[in-house]
Each structure stands twice: as C-alpha cells, then as structure tokens.
C-alpha cells in the first residue's frame, strides 16, 4: 500500500477564541511567534521506515494565512529528511477553483481549513487527488518512537475478516507524558455525573488485553489510518465542534462499516497545556448534544443502520443516552465550584440549555445531505493530474520564497518538497484559470512543464492473509 501521512497544524493568536463559530475553536493552537510542536513531530517521523509524503495542512487566522503557511514551510525546511507538501490558503483556493471547473457543488464549509472535520476532509481530498490509497492522520503534538510505525499502521488495512468484512479504517492508541494509555481522569465529587475518563479506561483496558485487532468503540484522531475504500465514500462531519474522530466511527457504523483497534500501534501524545479547561468542556457540550441529536435523526433514515448507545458500552454509550442535557448542566455547575476555571464553566452551563441545544437542532441533518455529494466529488477529483501538479507547484514556489528569505540557510540544503523532482527550469501545468497564489499569474496552457514525482511508500498491509490476522471476529 502507499499511505500518505497527513498532519493538521493550527496557527492562531492567543486572543483567538473561535468567535461566534464554535467549530473554529481549537484545543492547542500555536501562536504565530511560537515554535510549536510540529518540528518535534517531523524529527520523529524521519526515523520511520517506508515514509513517503507528509502533507501538512495549515489552519490559520484569516489575517495570518500567508505568514502561517510560510512559518510552517520554514519548520518543514529544517527537516530535509522528510518530504513535505504544505497545504495552506493558496492551495485551498486552487482546489476550490478546480472543483468549480468540475461542476462540483461549492463545499467551503465542508472541505477547508476551518474546523476539525473540514480540515480532515481536506486531507482526504488531497490524498485522493494525489492518488494515495491510504491516509494516516497524525497530530502535530505527537512523537513517533517506532521505526515500524507505518508498517503497523497498514497491518490488516484493506484485508477481510473470516466473515468477509473489509477492514477499511483502524486506530491505535496514545501514551501520555506518564507513559500510560489510561486517561488522567480524577474521581472527584464534581465529576460524579460525567465519568468519561473512567468509562474510557474501562474500555481500553479490555481492548489492550484482547487480540491485536478488535472492533473499536474509540478513535484516536492522531493515530488513525483510513483506506481509500472508506475515504472515497465517507467524509468527516464538519459540523461537530470536536471529537470528529469518534464521530467518524459512528458514521462508519451508520453506513455499514466499522473501525478497528490495533493494540500494537502506538505513539506518544505530548500536547501543550490547555489554556482553558472550561472552554474545552463547552466544546464538549456542543459536541455531545450534537452527537446525540444526530444519532436520533439518523434513526429516521431508512437507508442507514441504527447505532444505539447500548452497542457502545462502556464508552461512549453513556454519553449518548437520554438525560444527557441534565448531566452536562450539573457537571458544568459543579466544576464551576470545584475547578479553577470557574467563569468558563459557568458559561458552559448556560450554553448547554441555550446555544448548544439550538446548534444541535439546527445542524443535525446537514451531514447526511453532505454525504450525497461527497462520493461524487471524490470520484471526479481522483488522481486529478492538473490539480495535483498545481498543488505541488504552488507549494514549490512557497518553498523557494522561504528559502530565498532565509539568508542563513545553506544553498546545499533545499527544502524537500514533493515538487523537487521537477526538471530545472520547468513547471508543472496548472488548470486553466487556476492561480497558484493571489500575487502569481497562472502558467499558460501549453507551457513547457513536466509533472513532478510525488513520493509513494510501498508497504504491505501486515504481510499477512485474513487467516493469520490476530483479530476478534
């Protein structure tokens, strides 16, 4: 298989709180004047065997889009052993123009650089355009210690179980800064009605003792592998505020597939300190109320399989049951007395009965409407040579600009982008009417140029047959 690694990164000023759009509030954004964790992640990736292309998606405040892409490109440039393709606002504009040329419905909310779900959809689309048959999602605050990481990611992917069920998506697990896969959940009085950590610990403890592959009730979005048979058919939900990874598992089940847990596929998750735990819980309130309402709505759609909380025990079933709103409000108020972030928790409690409930009601049907459009869009853009060349050329021009601006960078160590294999003095063709960046004119049709070579890995999906897979049937 030829997997591509996709890493979203978020560049926002400290004052950023997502504004009125709750979807664009992120857990761990990097300030423009900070280095962030991306470089550490890329350094660890350099040791991974079979690594091909690494796509970095740059989500940034509108006022910082150009600077953020250049900042990320400069970080990537310091790791020449990793071949990167930086996708920022300029490349997103190319994609949107190409979609318009292909008469694909405008999907700026559903595919883009704002919101966890939309960003992951952009990663899936880029992988599809470039012709990869698997996507491995990482987060920029993770570290990979295992050189066999990609081989383990591909283990079983695309294979069939003994019952003939295809394995189209799988997840691994995180180790935290204490070298544990268990949640740091605390059994405190203010968590009496919201024992999410305990429920997760109960689930993963059992999964770690089982066979290597088992059906999963949980998804680590920063340790997630998706086969093209899944991502060409099923998108992430761009309306969920966070937890888009777990939501993808629920979507897979509704549409007749599943996700598998691999208890030998692991990395380290070392995030920076969360600035406001109350704000994060507010996002969780929007998330769980939306998820509950979405599952309720799905039961009225006859072409979907029903997903019931009882099938999701011990986690996340209890957080999708009736009485959810009351438990959320009680937890928010209790934490407003027992936790330091008191004001944010009080605001979260108010959101539960107002904005969050209204948001869930207003948006719960939209994902299913989007799902009618997604497969056709992916079909039209699959291995699109014109768009892939335009994306690589745009990234190449940015890399050249960053290298030129960095007077201290040695000339013998150019940025390792996917565009470097293009012959000197040539440029790949760009679709008619598509501009690589706002300040650059498009290459005229018929201009000399050769398609750059995008590096592909070649990893067997576990070097095994369905009979030898260590899995739960």
Features:
473 residues, 9-stranded mixed sheet, alpha/beta, globular
Can you characterise this structure?
The protein has 473 residues and is an alpha/beta fold. Helix content is 38%, strand content 11%. The protein contains 14 helices and 9 strands. Helix 9 runs parallel beside helix 12 (355-363). It starts with a strand and ends in a 68-residue tail after the last helix. Residues 409-416, 419-451 and 463-468 have low confidence and may be disordered.
- Beta-strand share of residues: 5-15%
Question: Unreliable runs, pLDDT <50, ≥5 residues?
Answer: 409-416, 419-451, 463-468
Question: How many E strands?
Answer: 9
Order of helices and strands: EHEHEHHEEHEHEEHHEHHHHHH
Instruction: Give the terminus-to-terminus CA distance.
Output: 24 Å
The largest pleated sheet is described as: 9 strands, mixed
Tertiary shape = globular
Structural class estimated from helices and strands: alpha/beta
Mean pLDDT: 86
Helix content: 25-40%
**Annotation field: number of helices:** 14
Radius of gyration: 22 Å
